[in-house]
Amino acid sequence: LGSRGLGDVYKEVYTPSTKAEIGDHDENISYEQSIAHLEKYFPGKGAEYAEKLRDYTIALYKKCADYALSKGIIIADTKFEFGLDENGNIVIGDEMLTPDSSRFWPADGYEPGHGQPSFDKQFARDWLKANDGNHDWTLPQEIVDKTIEKYLQAYEMLTGKPRHKEHHSVKKLQEAGSAPVFAYFVIRSDDNLILKCVKHVI
Known about the structure:
- This protein is of the alpha+beta class.
- Helices cover 42% and strands 13% of the residues.
- It has a two-stranded antiparallel sheet.
- Helix 1 (31-41) packs across helix 2 (46-70).
- 20% of the residues are buried.
- Mean pLDDT is 75; it is low at 168-174 and 176-202.
């Protein structure tokens, strides 16, 4: 899910996808295809589930994107993964609205028509792309440190709390040398930012 345009009104772009097997990429499909896909697995429920998934996704995104924008961050796009509980209710199935599953842009530097600076792992992706063929998928420590710094900056802006660079999650991240791990620190923070958004929607 992503937004086009900024300001008081923006248009959400909802793109369903199938869940691929481990190691494969998820496949984007149309809304109509999502109905057929769900109907195959849940006969008689395809249209109902597709509509609920679309509505829940857009509602979650709008609520949290509005909050983030008020803190100076544009959530350019994000993904939600859903499942069913034992009673057939739609539930969140994985992390959401983290720098791993989203693109966070600074609102004060937004300029349409080209790539944007970001607070997410796009920084690491850009380095890998620029150095294609010259790495073994191990990021230089400088890139790891800069990516951590971007995650910390986003955390501070969204929660209004100071950065805790000595937090055990950051230490584990630095030892592992892998920026994406830090996404879980945001979810586990005492601020419960994500839960604040979700409880107003579902």
